[in-house]
Design a protein that fits this description.
Helices cover 71% and strands 0% of the residues. The protein has 295 residues and is mainly α.
């Protein structure tokens, strides 16, 4: 009896330690986000004094007003939204279509194609040859540089292919009896039953498109085609109050500072992904389980 009680007490202590560790990890992870959020809602000049940790000292929406009234920031936001929606839709459809072909066991040379694709996961040409390729394709300062190079991912193809191979063959056979061709089967049969994996890949690629600043920094010189992440990167990297002041429209209060604009822009650029994730979480969890259970 004493031994059993001691074991139970030890388990309780162990659980308590685990809870404390998880709370500490959550705090370390979430507090920087909370700090940015709180300071973005504080008056800019007052925030420069420091000492704001848990809630705004002087609540103000002037920084957000400056963000939404700035034509440069809103143009960059529009580019980001457009490339995320278009790029994700094109990537998911094209990668899924190729993966469906790869999932057919009657495909001639399937093993060779998979081997060649696997090599690309470990080796690439490097930045300079890739830049020359983009230049020769006339994609420099072109919106399509966000779409065409990101149309296909072999890693995502493997995930799609694994899911497609678990779809019962009877569905395709029934569609063929009704006279459907391969394209009709893919669009009308395969895609509707593949929403978990489609949502998973869409989330992965959507986050990539939304957060990608490198493409705009290297291949785009036209400021009207730069996404919000590149715009924000340039502001943070240069830390230029003059550049920020030039981007701010007239009539904005002097209480707004370049730092407060940076924080407000960070919140605005992060919020859409954070808000979209709960709606995709159900499919995302299912997608992560692809291939984990057999039989």
């Amino acid at each position: 009896m004493f031994k059993r009680n001691r074991t139970t007490a030890g388990d309780a202590a162990f659980d308590a330690v685990n809870v404390l560790i998880m709370l500490a990890v959550c705090f370390v992870t979430l507090y920087p986000i909370w700090y940015v959020l709180v300071n973005s809602f504080n008056e800019g000049q007052d925030a420069m004094r420091g000492g704001i940790y848990w809630w705004p000292r002087i609540f103000s929406l002037e920084s957000y007003e400056a963000v939404f009234r700035s034509s440069g920031i809103m143009t960059a936001m529009g580019v980001t939204v457009a490339k995320t929606l278009i790029g994700t839709a094109v990537h998911v459809f094209f990668t899924a279509m190729v993966a469906y072909a790869f999932s057919r066991r009657e495909l001639v040379g399937q093993k060779l194609y998979i081997l060649l694709g696997t090599v690309t996961l470990f080796f690439n040409s490097g930045l300079i040859p890739y830049y020359l390729l983009i230049r020769d394709l006339h994609l420099l300062d072109n919106f399509l540089v966000y779409i065409i190079p990101a149309m296909f991912s072999f890693f995502d193809l493997i995930i799609f292919m694994t899911f497609f191979r678990e779809i019962p063959d009877g569905l395709e056979e029934a569609a063929k009896i009704d006279g459907a061709n391969d394209l009709s089967i893919f669009v009308r049969v395969i895609i509707p039953v593949s929403m978990p994996v489609i949502a998973t890949i869409a989330l992965f690629h959507g986050v990539y498109q939304w957060n990608d600043y490198f493409t705009g920094m290297i291949y785009i010189n036209n400021m009207d085609l730069q996404p919000i992440q590149t715009y924000l990167y340039r502001i943070v990297a240069q830390s230029s109050s003059n550049q920020m002041a030039a981007a701010m429209p007239g009539g904005i209060s002097k209480n707004v500072t370049s730092q407060s604009i940076k924080l407000a822009t960070m919140v605005v650029t992060t919020a859409p992904i954070v808000l979209a994730y709960p709606f995709l979480q159900r499919y995302f969890v299912k997608g992560l389980m692809i291939g984990s259970i057999k039989g």
